[in-house]
Amino acid sequence: MYYVYILKSVNYNQVYTGFTKDIETRLKHHNDGKSPHTSKYKPWKLVITFTFDSEIKARDFEKYLKTGSGIAFSRKHFL
Predict the structure, then answer these.
(1) How far apart are CA 28 and CA 45, in angstroms?
(2) Which domains does the chain show, CATH number per domain?
(3) 28-39, pLDDT tens digit by residue?
(4) The pLDDT of residue 79
(5) 0.90 cut: is pTM over it?
């Protein structure tokens, strides 16, 4: 399975969207400060996870969520 996820910083007004095959390990990775893009805004909480059986579909959806309309969609429905 492939996952697209949205994280929200607990202490800052920051949101992060990502892709992974192991959501638990990836969230721990973010909260341990091992990702340069998210380390300064930790800790993170998981807002929502989308599950896909196709890597291509998951990556396409992640890419969409990072566009202007995808960000607006996420804010309206999940944040």
Answers:
(1) 10
(2) 2-77 (3.40.1440.10)
(3) 999 999 999 999
(4) 84
(5) yes
Contacts of 16 (CB under 8 A, 6+ apart): 6, 7, 8, 9, 30, 37, 38, 41, 44
The DSSP result for the chain, as a single string, is -EEEEEEEESSSS-EEEEEES-HHHHHHHHHTT--TTTGGG--EEEEEEEEES-HHHHHHHHHHHTSHHHHHHHHHHT-
61: CB partners within 8 A, 6+ apart: 4, 50, 52
How far is C-alpha 78 from the chain's CA centre? 12
Rounded CA-CA distance 77/6 in Å is: 12
pLDDT band of 25, cuts 50, 70, 90: very high
